[in-house]
Amino acid sequence: MDIGLLSPVSVGHDDAVSDSAVLDALVTAEIALVRAWSAVGLADAADADAASRALGWAGSTTGCRAHGLDADALAVAAVAGGNPVIPLVALVRDRVPETARRWVHRGATSQDILDSALMLVAHRAGSVIRERLRGVETALTALARERRDEVAAARTLTQHAVPTTIGLRAANWLRGVRRAIERVDAAVAALPAQLGGAGGTLASFVEIASLEGHAAAASELSAAFAAELGLAAPDAPWHTTRWPVTELGDAVVQAIDALGVLASDVATLSRTEIGELSEGSGGGSSAMPQKQNPVDSVLIRSAALRAPNLGATLHLAAALAVDERPDGAWHAEWPTFRELLRLALGASAHAVSLVQGLAVDSDAVARNLALTNGLIVSERLAIVLGPLIGRDEVSAVVAAGDGLGAALRALPQLDGVDVDALLDPAGYTGLAGALVDDATRPETGADDA
């Protein structure tokens, strides 16, 4: 039912977390388990290969996509047992050769398959998010370098504060995005497969392996299963230890936070009365033909407003993951986790578009910088002139507002002081240039890559 009509931020960018993608991952997990039983020497290799062919297995990178199963029918059938794996097992068994059927879902519990499938979906989505964030990183690096020394008004609590540069503002966005990339990278790389059996003890796998005459295979199965899925091998079942979900969830929220700051700044600075920034292709209005709305920024902000509560829900579910399988907390994770990934996929795609098309109006930047007639360097005046004329006198001159330069030149104590240089905002940007250089410096070895 949800095609994105009320979530335009994700439309066209969320195929990796669609119901179809989830179904593919569920089938992939079931076939990966058959293949894992073969990898540890218990299931016949011919049976594993036949089961793989029957469900469209195309390797761990792609998994099973040409399986022909109906997501709509599976969703309806899932209601009776509370999850889609229960009816899926019967469908998969019906599709594979009879000799392979006993290895389908053998020893596993529904949570093993569903958790592993969601990790597979998350891994693929996380990889897309990461690449899009890297696209943002590249574009912001170029912007920061290009505008390194372009002086602008810094704003604190909405008001003009001191001079900064367009380059430093971009470098600050860049630092936030880069840190998020590191977090997403680490969380995606750590995503594990799930295999614990009914109560997380792996007793079923031990028993099966013993009956098949190879008891040691039980301890090898989890790693083999993870390898078939292209996921990390778990150090233990994590049915009620939900760090894989919360750690990636936190990283994704952090990424959306970083994009939200960027989008919020662009939305503010593209206001008609400010006009320092504009999106490459603004959106229109149904009533006002003159409008060029910052649509990418608006959509990213919509994701940034929603993401933190989704992350909080994942933590709440993790905190209530009781017993050896949670009664509802686990179920609450599924749509929440998927929606958070969906928002990140959309927000990161729009962020690439936003930054690559971002335009700076240098005239507007200069105009706004000059709005306070020199008062933007008041902090500098207090530091430099305070010892010469006293802080009270500096405050009095600043409070007079207009004619700041003339008022300073009229003070006999300032004979010999270059007032024009003192009032030049470009002379009071501190280490802005160095901070930009540090943020945009190529990584060691990058030129050789």
Write up this protein:
The chain is mainly alpha-helical and about 450 residues long. About 60% of the residues lie in helices and about 5% in strands. It has helices spanning about 20-40, 45-55, 70-80, 85-95, 110-145, 165-190, 205-210, 215-230, 245-270, 295-320, 330-355, 360-370, 380-390, 390-400, 405-410, 420-425, 430-440, and strands spanning about 150-155, 160-165, 275-280, 360. The chain has a two-stranded antiparallel sheet with strand order 1-2. A two-stranded antiparallel sheet has the order 3-4. Helix 1 (about 20-40) runs antiparallel to helix 2. The radius of gyration is 29 Å and the shape is elongated. It starts with 18 loop residues before the first helix and ends in a 9-residue tail after the last helix. The relative contact order is 0.12.
Write the layout of secondary structure elements.
Layout: H1 19-39, H2 45-54, H3 71-81, H4 85-95, H5 110-146, E1 151-156, E2 159-165, H6 166-190, H7 203-211, H8 217-229, H9 243-269, E3 277-278, H10 295-319, H11 329-356, E4 359-360, H12 362-369, H13 378-389, H14 391-400, H15 404-409, H16 419-423, H17 432-440
Antiparallel strand pairs: 1-2, 3-4
Helix pairs in contact: 1-2, 1-5, 1-8, 3-4, 5-6, 5-9, 5-11, 5-17, 6-9, 6-17, 7-8, 9-10, 9-11, 10-11, 13-14
Count of β-strands: 4
Quickly give the structural class: mainly alpha
Question: Can you summarize the main beta sheet?
Answer: 2 strands, antiparallel
Radius of gyration: 29 Å
- Strands in their spatial order, largest beta sheet: 1-2
Name the poorly predicted regions. none
